[in-house]
Amino acid sequence: QKAQADLNLAKENLVRQQRISNAEIAQAKTQLAAAVAQYNRDQALVNQRSVLKVAQENYRRQLQISTAQIAQATTEVAVAQEQYDKDSELVAAGAFPRRQMLESKAKLERAKAELERAKSRPEVVQAESEVKRAEVDLPLRELRDSQARVAELQAQLSRVETRRDVLEAEAQLKRAQSDLEVAQSRLKLSNTTYETRLQQLGTRANAKGLVTVTAPIYGTIADREVTLGQSLQDAGGKLMTIINDSQVFATANIYEKDLDKVKMGQRVRVKIASLPDRTFEGKITRIGSVVEGETRVVPVQAELSNAGGELKPGMFAELEVITDRTATTLLAIPTSAVVEANGKKLVYVQNGNSFQSVEVSLGQNSGDLVEVKTGLFEQDLIVTQRAPQLYAQSLRGGGKKAEASDHNDEPANPATNQTNSLPLPWHLVLPIGGAVAAGIFAAGIWAGRRRQPRLVSESNSQSSDPIFEPEIYLNHSHPPVPSRSSVLVRDHEDPHQPN
């Protein structure tokens, strides 16, 4: 609208200036005609010599040519200057390319050069010299006055015909027309962009110009970066972040030595620190292809179902990867009962009133339990706590006698456990720590450790001996409590953490 109004004003100004200029041009032409007639009369008086006549005709012709060239060159310079100024403004506004401005500048320089050549035409100078030579001894005063008057009126006519006001009005009209074209082009481009954006969104604006933006996925708005009434100028501006948390991912690290027990699609169980009474099921969807140099771990990712939305990105998680089932029944003891000595694995077994070291062959680990392949038998009573102290004592001399006591006696002997081979299938459960993450979250990895599980034997219901959970003492100066307990191979529903 502003560009159209400017164009209308420019047209009115041009019409007004043209009217004024036409009146002045008519007056100048009348005066010039009178001056030319007087000049012709004066010239008839002095045309006595053919040389003078020829010289004067030649001078007049050259003068007319020069005047016309100067007027034309002056007009071209004014037009080129206006065009250059307009192009400079449009280039500064980003509407036209810079190349067009350079072309206008070159055209202006050429017009100025033509004007200088027209003002200094050698033919005019030569013709004037010839006239002066031919005017010797002739009464040329009146002729010269008439000639000067004609030249003055011709210049006045040229000035009127090239009035600056008219040129400025014409230039203003051209600028207004150009501005209108630019505005129309921008409006067309804006409408095209607007329609393209609507097509990309797959929607249309309502009567109020409002557009409904539909999210590309189902989920929950996790972050909103715009406020009510805010305007976004740049395409691709971020409105909000949506998380589809019906499926979340738990990421963790697994040691290199355990890689052969983990495969894609393997089932995992996940426990969350803030949801201690809940256990979530999932499966492994990604296993890293690179082992980290210092920690020797490989990242794994498990996909978990989160239909209830209880799992939140960034939660601390404890992952348990359930490996394959073994085909036979295994014998297992606490790892605290094993003593390493001179490259051998020793376990202290109660033999009467003393403890005897027995060399054993170990197998797989599961949490705080380790498989015993050879060296122990069912119903053996073994030392599960302070076994290294017994080994050190044996080096000083002899095994230590076991003092009979129940759980209410004063502490005297290292705690013992009774080994049982139970008809339960062995599940090797590999626990690892991790964190729950959604699609846009990159959660860190936190290693976790579970409390030692309570060990219960199926034979307890038939035994009259009291069953106690072995105690773990971090301070070895604390007196041990002897206890009789049974070691149970854990079912896959309650796996152990590694040390």
In short:
The protein is an alpha+beta fold. It contains seven helices and 17 strands.
Characterise the protein shown here.
This protein is of the alpha+beta class. The chain has three domains: 2-186, no CATH class; 243-322, Beta Barrel (Elongation Factor Tu (Ef-tu), domain 3), CATH 2.40.30.170; 331-431 and 453-487, conserved putative lor/sdh protein from methanococcus maripaludis s2 fold (Beta Barrel), CATH 2.40.420. Helix content is 39%, strand content 22%. The chain has helices at 2-46, 50-93, 98-119, 122-134, 141-161, 164-201, 387-397, and strands at 220-224, 240-243, 247-255, 267-272, 275-287, 297-305, 316-325, 331-334, 338-341, 344-351, 354-359, 361-366, 369-374, 381-383, 416-419, 427-437, 484-487. The strands form five sheets. A six-stranded antiparallel beta barrel has the order 3-6-5-4-7-16. Strand 4 (267-272) and strand 5 form a beta hairpin. Helix 1 packs antiparallel against helix 5. The longest helix is centred in the first third of the chain and has 45 residues, at 2-46. It starts with a helix and ends in a 12-residue tail after the last strand. Mean pLDDT is 69; it is low at 399-412 and 420-499.
Strand content: 15-25%
Count the helices. How many?
7
Number of strands: 17
Strand order of the largest sheet: 3-6-5-4-7-16
Stretches where pLDDT falls below 50 for ≥5 residues?
Answer: 399-412, 420-499
Question: Which helices and strands appear, and what pairs or packs with what?
Answer:
Blueprint: H1 2-46, H2 50-93, H3 98-119, H4 122-134, H5 141-161, H6 164-201, E1 220-224, E2 240-243, E3 247-255, E4 267-272, E5 275-287, E6 297-305, E7 316-325, E8 331-334, E9 338-341, E10 344-351, E11 354-359, E12 361-366, E13 369-374, E14 381-383, H7 387-397, E15 416-419, E16 427-437, E17 484-487
Parallel strand pairs: 15-17
Antiparallel strand pairs: 1-2, 3-6, 3-16, 4-5, 4-7, 5-6, 7-16, 8-13, 9-10, 10-11, 12-13, 14-15
Helix pairs in contact: 1-5, 1-6, 2-3, 2-4, 2-6
